[in-house]
Amino acid sequence: MDTVTLTMKNLPALYLEAETISPDQFAAKSPAEIGKLSAYMGNEHHTLGDFFEIAGNPGKTAADTKIVVTGDLSKVKYIGMKMTAGEIEVLGNTDMYVGAWMAGGTIRVKGNVDSFCGMGMTGGELLIAGNARNYLGAAYRGDWRGMQGGKIVVGGNAGSDLAFFMRGGEITIGGDVDVHVATHAEGGKIIIKGNAKSRVGGQMVKGDIYVFGEIERMMPSYKYIGDEQIEVNGTSGTFQVWIGDLGERHGKRKGETIYGKIYLKVKEAEEKEGSTRVSRKIKLTDAQMQSVSEAFAGKEPSVSNVKAFIQESFGIEMKPMQISRLIDEIRRKA
Amino acid sequence: MTRTITDVVCPFCGTLCDDLIVTVSEDGKKLLDVENACAIGAEKFLHTQASDRVTRPRKIQEDGSSVEVSYDEAIEYTAQLLVNAKKPLMYGWSSTSCEAQSVGSEIAEQVGAIIDNTAAVCHGTTLVAVQNVGIPSCTLGEVKNRADRIIFWGCNPAHAHPRHMSRYSIFPRGYFTGKGHKNRKLIVVDPRTTDTSSLADVHLQVEQGADYELLQALRAAVRGQELTGDIIAGVPKEKVYEAADLLKSGRFGVIFFGMGVTQSLGKDHNIDAAIMLTKDLNEYTKFSIIAMRGHYNVTGSGQVLGWQFGFPYSVDLSRGFARYNPGETGSIELLKRKEADAIVVLGSDPGAHFPVRCVREIANLPSVCIDPHITPTSEICKLHVPVAFVGIEVGGNCYRMDNVPIDSRKVIEPPEGMMTDEEFLRAVNTRVSELKAA
Amino acid sequence: MADEYIIRNGQVYDPKQGIKGDVMDICINNGKIVSKVSKKAKEVDATGKTVMAGAVEIHAHVAGPKVNEGRNYRPEDKLFTCRATGANTHMEAGFSIPTTFRTGYNYARMGYTTVMEAAMPPIYARHVHEEIKDTPIVDQGAFPVFGNNWFVFEYLKNKEDANVNAYIAWLLHVTKGYAIKIVNPGGSEAWGWGKNCDTIHDPVPYFDITPAEIMSGLMKANEQLGLPHSIHVHTNNLGNPGNYETTLDTFRLAEGVKTNNKFGREQVFHHTHVQFHSYGGDNWGNFESKAKDVMNYVNQNKNITIDLGCVTLDETTTMTADGPFEHHLTELNHLKWANVDVELETSSGIVPYVYNPDIKVCAIQWAIGLELGLLAKDPMRTFITTDHPNAGPFTRYPRVFGWLMDQKYRNERLSTFKYSEKVNDATSLGSLDREITLYELAQMTRAGPAKALGLTDMCGGLAPGMDANVAIYNINADSLDGASIEKAFSAADQVFKCGTLVVDNNDIITETDKRTLWVDVKVPDNKQVERDVVMKFLKYYSMNLANYEVSDHFVPHPYVIEVDAT
Amino acid sequence: MSANSINLISGRTIQQGVAMEGGKEKDKYHKACGIIEMDNEDFKKLDIMKNTNVSVTSSYGSVVVKAIETTQGPHPGVAFIPMGPWANSVVSDETYSTGMPTFKGTPVFIKAAPDERVLKMIELMRYNCWGEKQ
Questions:
Q1: How far apart are CA A273 and CA B27, in angstroms?
Q2: pLDDT over 70 for what percent of chain B?
Q3: In this structure, are residues A85 and A67 in contact, taking their beta carbons and an 8 Å threshold?
Q4: Taking CB atoms and an 8 Å cutoff, what residues of chain A touch B265?
Q5: Which of D6, D7, D18, D21 to mutate to test the interface with B (most CBs of B within 10 A)?
Q6: DSSP assigned state of B121
Q7: Residue B388 belongs to domain spanning
Q8: Shortest CA distance to B300 belongs to which of B4, B102, B7, B84?
Q9: How many domains are contained in chain D?
Q10: Residues of the domain holding C448
Q11: Mean pLDDT calculated for residue range B136-140
């Protein structure tokens, strides 16, 4: 495999659109020809040569072409868009649409990427060492076909709308994710090593989500159906199994309804006492319970009030789901 | 002697009431009275009579003071600014006519601009949701003639669309709704008790920012599924099931929704879920959903951009063809990320309605504000071009919140020598063509 | 416009004059076809090429609220399909629902110069005309929908002919409309309650009238008024297995009805996109073609015309004033559903649809469209459409031509389906060896639709005195293979619109002023209808009557066809 | 959201609408929008006097407005500033890549600021953009 190295020499004043940085475009071209490939800054037409030092030679085909991009790439969009084969290595942070609609090959980003990376991806590997922002592996606006194949691995955190309308492929997030995971998904596999906030699997019709950390707030339209001992990418453990989204339509296979599934890892501590619900770590003493029920006697306690009250009086941070359960308890007592 | 003009269209909100009666002086120069308008609409008409109205363009000096310049100078400045920019943003387009919007499109195409309307901070996420899951809807007359279930979700028409309830949704008697509001059940979903919720049969005081959870719970309830947790997004589970039954039991229901869902956590997903709830309910009865479009002709801007470029807002023409992705080409993102290098604002007030970080960026850019009023935007732009009030001093087509087009009327003459925004844009367009040709 | 042209040595196909490929010259002066021109005339060499009149589109959804909703809610339809601003053209975008500019350009590129918008909801007429204004080059008219209109229901129920006629005349006038369109009569009103009318005899809820009565009543009114076009019908029960019986029941309504007009129109009834209405079987499993039964009837009844609605096997966007059908469709494919019910007038819906060749039903639908065309005995009464964009975008016409004109070409497609055998069992396409000729193509895309629209003396032909709409294609009778046909008809070498050269070397060179065709009917004054209109607007409309009429500035280039029915 | 932060939402009020159309440079607009509506409970909790000026601070900015008792309540834990430059000095500009800022649901801290002045529209704009304070 032959390598072409692009080194940023002139920083663009505005953002640079460089979908031409792709093995498919470079293959069988001379460095000079590569330098003449288009790059756009706003409504101005430029060439890659205007911004990059170009060294080395590509292979005959995309498959045997490797591109190394270096320098300050934080204002470069569309690297590796629609690529079908070969390799791209980005040494540092870069902007939006990395590997958007990619069908094959490998992209390695050493730093962080912005939103819309791996959008509508159908194949290949997108490996991001740092963080990815929103809409990773998602669908383009209006399309019902998000990520359909291939693999995305993020070392750090991912933003909101991860795997929006995902249909297939696999995504692994090393860290935490923001709201809305796999919304409208109809297939695919997502592994989250860290924590998730809320709206995990909202409107999901089909697909699997594995969460090793905690889910701050489970969708009320998901149902806990028991624990399972499973192995996910080498790590095995007990996982709570939740099915949903019960607000959505669901297909049947062999008379059996297919649901989206969330596998939530049960923490060691809980495994001992056997878990039935999301994280039970926090429990109020009877005295605390007492003062809560007094504080809200005869009122219609809302989750946010009770949450705030408990925070102030006992300095305890509780999850909305736990609060709402607590409120039911108070109700039952009263 | 005075003249009265009937069937006047109100240029304030997306309700486009078209039954106003305006009294003007014989010479058509003074506006004396407005009937049938809401407080806000009436004020809009009467403000044209303000004695301290700015009637000539003003350039803002270094020291913040302003000097009057001629329209010709303003045209030259605006054309130069657009032609010299690499990625100019042309924002607003709501308080103007479709005719003016069309000229704006021509300019934007010539200079390779990004053209965006106030949906960006209003119902943009609604348009995104519609792109994801569609929208079963109807005209407001259908609501008046058929509806027996009305849901106001995250909107407060008593304040934002003052005549909506009396003209279309709650009180009017229609063909199949002879009993008016007596046969209509009203559900209001709002984290606050509001002047609208006080009229409601049912008020679901949702936990702010948890509309998505409540909507999906409602959808599950409609399907007879069991819900997890006894309080759903601040609402007791039983109330969720009751609400689901109330919706299914109607013959024709409508969900009206507003900023409460478009601007809260989840944004398009909240609307997405509301639309899917509407779709689900069509398996049991007839249901529609309508966005409470706020700004006069923001809907029209979406229509014009739609048939000319294919996208309803945040349209990026910089590459010579149209692209769209609000998360990248939307005004807020462009300003936050410093992607644009010039801005022209027409028929809108981002200075008042954008977050401070974006406002600061506008103040730093070469900028023009085309607006009849003195506004926060006019105060931070390098050039303020006052123009005639569209819908009062000049007519033109506009689209109602349900996309029904109505041709608005001119009722009085603008102050002597004042341009309309369409005239100003045409002049700029001509000048841009000359500069491009050179 | 004033330019003189002479198109030399083309092989001319003009059914209007019965010219079948004779090599001759066509002369143009002052926007019209003339018999001879002066020496100054610019010459266009058409040696070895095919010369036809500009084509006439009788049924497409190209302008208006649902078309634009389709555009706005399908950004993915624009993805990678845009074309940058050109020397003579605006930006273009969209595949199945192109922008207005691309719509005008692409029709012109294919040699189409007249295009009818198939469904205009009256209250949205202003929007339709705004889009027509922004659609370059082609002459356009729009058909207001009458089949679910409350006024029509009440007047027909009370057998008040004069009032029906007066109301039609009024609505055509205020909407600047061209003809009477009927979509799922009664069914779209029933959809206001989530219901439908599945046969032409199902009563419309609360209105005590049936689809059959609505269609017959409007057919009668159309002939009493003597409009240029006949009623233009999309009947009940579209798209369902077994619906061909509903279709034949609908056709029979025209039996014995005589035409009455001054425009050379011979039919009293046009049925559109018949492909969607020619289904047998009673479920998607035993779904089959009934094209033979349908065409046998059409062939025998001279007062009926149809258009095909051929499936092109693309990802497209369905849109129709048949609201309940779109709901039915979204329940089948679960893709995004838009719906608009329009007060007192109609409903409408939109759903994207992927006609996947690997799905049996889609392949059968494809075959049925072509069967209908090949079984047509009278090409002057059978017109080629895709019901754009419902069965496929109009830009696929050249491919449909290829399938109809080259048996080998269509059999290649037929034999490479995943379920080719099943398709052959369910249809007769494989057994049809007919190949549509260039002359028949000119009948099915020019002379035929022009005559059905009452425009036979204006367009669709090359007789002296007619508008100089001419298309020159780089193909001739000796080289009619599917691929060449598709290539040649996708981009004409030259196209003239009213005497102006608008397409040269296969692309747009100028945007000449297009025209809007509408029909203005004079009827006796009718106080009752005037009163009824005022009352209905006061009580039931959400808009004031004074703001309803489309004022003239929305129609900057009108071509008004006046009809005196007093 | 930490212990004593309040959830801020902004939106239309009819007074804001009327004042806006009457002229945003006028006192009426400044009076209609330079306010924050809070619940009794929250006044107590934060130990703030009604109809006094307060400083509202979020991670996006800070602004001085007049605290008044809510006109459309109760909504404990939620505060409301009518849409306009005052609200937008503190609202969240996080869009989650949808293009839409989070105008509703910004955690803010509210402190009594009896000696601070509520800036007029033009003052506020200049202060926010160029840091000028008259």
A1: 87
A2: 100
A3: no
A4: 179
A5: D21
A6: G
A7: 58-121+296-437
A8: B102
A9: 1
A10: 56-456
A11: 97
Specify the pTM: 0.94
DSSP letter (8 states) at residue C123: G
Q: Does a structural domain hold residue D123? A: yes
Spell out which residues of chain B touch residue A116, defining contact as CB-CB under 8 Å.
325, 327-328
Which residues of B, range 361-400, sit inside 8 Å of C by Cβ?
Answer: 397, 399
- Answer yes or no: is D115 within a domain: yes
- Report the DSSP beta bridge partners of residue A3: A66
Task: Indicate the pairing of strand A196-198 with strand A151-154.
Answer: unpaired
Cis peptide before B116 (omega within 30 of 0): no
pLDDT at B403 over 60: yes
- In a domain, residue B52? The reply is no
Residues of chain A neighbouring C77 (CB-CB closer than 8 A): 142
* Chain A residues close to C334, C-beta within 8 Å: 249
Q: What are the chain C neighbours of A142 within 8 Å (beta carbons)?
A: 73-77, 336
Which CATH number covers residue D55? 2.40.40.20
Residue of B188, B143, B151, B191 lying closest to B167 (CA atoms): B143
Question: Nearest 5°: phi and psi at B178?
Answer: -60, -25
The subunits that touch chain A, with at least 3 C-beta pairs less than 8 Å apart, are B, C, D
CB A95 within 8 A of CB A112: no
Q: Do B391 and B410 share a domain, yes or no?
A: yes
The angle at the Cα of B76, spanning B71 to B79, to the nearest 5 degrees, equals 120
User: What burial class does residue D115 get, using C-beta atoms within 10 Å of its C-beta: 0-12 exposed, 13-18 middle, 19+ buried?
Assistant: exposed
**Cis omega (within 30 of 0) on the bond before D76?**
no
Which B residues, 134 through 163, put their C-beta within 8 Å of a C-beta on chain A? Answer: none
- B134/B248 same-domain check: yes
CB atoms under 10 Å from CB of C412, counted, come to: 12
Q: Tell me the helix, strand and coil percentages in chain C, rounded to 5.
A: 35, 25, 40
Is A140 at the interface with chain C, CB within 8 A? yes
C-alpha distance from residue C418 to each of C294, C313, C356, C423, C431 (Å): 27, 13, 10, 9, 19
Tokens, residue B321 = 């063809």
Quote the longest CA-to-CA distance of chain C. Answer: 69
Task: List pLDDT tens digits, range A42-91.
Answer: 999 999 999 999 999 999 999 999 999 999 999 999 999 999 999 999 99
Torsion angle in degrees (nearest 10) through CA of A85, A90, A94, A100: 10
Q: How confident is the model at residue C154 (pLDDT cuts 50, 70, 90)?
A: very high
Side-chain-facing half-sphere of C278: CA atoms under 13 Å? 34
Least Cα distance to D76 among A301, B227, C88, B11 occurs for: A301
Partners of C233 in the β-ladder:
C182, C271
Q: Is A179 on the interface with D (CB under 8 A)?
A: yes
What CATH number is attached to the domain comprising B224? 3.40.228.10
Domain co-membership, B105 together with B141: no
Q: CB D97 to CB A159 under 8 A?
A: yes
User: Measured between CB atoms, which of C72, C123, C350 is closest to B312?
Assistant: C72
| Cβ distance of D75 and B12 shorter than 8 Å | no
HSE, CB side, 13 Å, CA atoms: give it for residue C373: 34
- Whether residues B387 and B311 share a domain: the answer is yes
Same-domain check for residues B381 and B427: yes
Q: What do you get for the CA distance between the two ends of chain D, in Å?
A: 34
pLDDT band at D134 (very low <50, low <70, confident <90, very high): very low
**Which residues of chain A make contact with C76, given a CB cutoff of 8 A?**
140-143
Name chain B's partners: 3 or more CB pairs within 8 A: A, C, D
**B303's tokens:** 């229509």
Residue in this structure with the two tokens 């994280």, named with its chain if needed: A279
3-state helix, strand, coil in chain B (%, to 5): 40, 20, 40
